[in-house]
């Protein structure tokens, strides 16, 4: 009989989605295949490339579903023809003529959708909101929404005592920048002071309006967040495209996303040279780390780049386990191992320092220019610093040493935390980690801890971030939404090249 197979991990996800108090939050238990249908919708919406990997057999801990349950064949709500039509269109094949091919593709889409859900949704996050974002954003309501917004803005700025006209508007992926010409120079101050009131008048809740200076006389820019159904998402395809155009002078290029007007933003991690990524739970820290990591993996060979992935959550970095880039062969998940490998890294740094000294060069870059040193760069990613510190405070010592002196030796740290407080981001680390990425935080005091400035409390969540790279101005970036497929595609390239 025709079957659809799931894995153990898929089944865990399905159970989470069907919980009463989380996921779909249905009072009556829905059949499990409801989630398979949602997974099909999720996969059909995905813009990632479709891989025809073989998952066509039972798996330990997984489950078998009858095809009839999933399609509803012969029942009151029979979706067989609908599913067959959708898949025929998606694959440009006539699947009505080949039952077996239809079942195989249905199976693959369902597994792909389940995998996407498993990696992008956590049961601490609102499932309805997650699905809404996945399935219904990017639709083309933008124009009508913006027309309404223009009228509202004019009346709102009048209410705060500013008499300005909207000169023009520039649409970005999530915000629209309204260019307001001000006749009275004091209106600029009124606007700045009135931003919170403007947000309130426009019903933006916690999301804030950002005031931007422009290069036009007497014109100020108001960056106003649009509702989520008008966002367009920046995805893995965008990242892959940008990487192809990386400027040659970049050593460790990172492409976290686009600026508010949609222009890709790039920085060189060697110039950072260490970064703290902070934000509340669900703000997009993990996806931001994946984006930074994929930016590097897509542009660096395993001879040029070594990575240390420290992941006390045991989930985020697991997919990278098979990469050839690991400095110590694997993803580190325990605090004991983390302490050991960070101490080893301090030794590596000191060995590199002696090599630099014996070659009479200041740092690895000068050594490369002079052609006397050829060493891979090492980038250390720590997922949830606060958790690691709870398990072992001793880890702070090697981290601080690496932060103090790692740059010259080509060692860089990228640390993330959802608890941006003075205890986690202490004085010594703080003063030696000059670059910061703040995703949405709860309070302005947290924004100050990460960025030394307020503002991150007014971001719109989901990968919206303020980035301060050592010595540069803060820039607002909307992050790339990396999905499991993007990670797998990147890793499979290394497998193919091995
Ligand atoms: N760049 C982005 N574009 C659109 N949505 C995003 C983006 N980044 C994150 N999201 C959404 O936000 C959700 C949470 O992201 P993520 O898991 O990275 O947050 P987090 O800060 O690591 O959360 P936690 O601290 O709970 O692990 C994602 O599942 C996704 O739906």
UniProtKB/TrEMBL annotation:
Stored SUPFAM superfamilies: P-loop containing nucleoside triphosphate hydrolases (SSF52540)
InterPro entries (alphabetical): DNA_S_DndE, DndE_sf, FtsK/SpoIIIE/SftA, FtsK_dom, P-loop_NTPase
Residues involved in ATP binding: 279-286
Alphabetically ordered keywords of this record: ATP-binding, Nucleotide-binding
Residues covered by the FtsK domain: 262-448
Pfam families linked to this entry: DndE, FtsK_SpoIIIE
Gene3D superfamilies: DNA sulphur modification protein DndE (1.10.1220.160), P-loop containing nucleotide triphosphate hydrolases (3.40.50.300)
GO molecular function terms listed in the Swiss-Prot or TrEMBL record: ATP binding; DNA binding
Name of the protein in question: DNA translocase domain-containing protein, FtsK-like
Species name: Desulfonema limicola
Taxonomic lineage from the root: Bacteria, Pseudomonadati, Thermodesulfobacteriota, Desulfobacteria, Desulfobacterales
